[in-house]
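Q: Here's a chain of 241 amino acids. Please give me its 3D structure as tokens.
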Amino acid sequence: MLVKLDNSVLLSKSIDVISELVSEVRIKVNEFGMSITARDPANVAMVGFRLPKGAFSQFEVDDEVLGVNLDDFKRILKRAGTGSSLILERQDNLLKIQIQDRIRRNFSLNLIDIDTEDKEMPGLEFSSRVEIDSIDFIASIEDCAVVANSCSFIIEDGKFIIEAKGLNSARSEFSGDEAKIQAENCKAKYSLEYLQKFIKGSKLTEKTILKFANDHPLKMDCRTEHMGISFILAPRVETDD
């Protein structure tokens, strides 16, 4: 396996986001590109990541599975600058990483055995889809985190509302002028601890797509032309509101 990525930021920033949820992953590299699917240890959230073959300037692979410690991988990737190219090559039980910019720098990352079954993002059905400017979504989640540890996503009469209530409260309201809303009236509550990790993915894209339903898991998609990160988060279902 030998692949070259001219825009190293695509991978380094994505790995940084994924490492918020899991510490070890199996990176799949095949004819379609590079992908990761992982579930967090608490079994509350999942993350899916994809760099398609077209994102790479050089792509020589068979089917590969690379077990990596994300903290170690992240520290190496952070040594690459904005204009750096990245070459990844498997040699036996090592991942050789070359950073090319003004000079060439070489690293070796020890590959590890990860004894987990391969996972796939589940197919879920949703009654609501909201496409929102990432900057607005990030601000709303950060507002809610100031006052509570969970927030509700609400569809009410064609409006999308993000609301948190504790001793204090925060609320953001979006009409069809500020977001693309295709939804039925519903309400679901989610952990802000996880959403604050997810919005690091939103910082990589102009738009964030949210899919949810009444007391149903959330699916959140952050996509660019050459990169996609998706998250799934279980709802908080409480007997008394």
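Q: Can you summarize the key feature?
A: The chain is about 20% helix and 45% strand.
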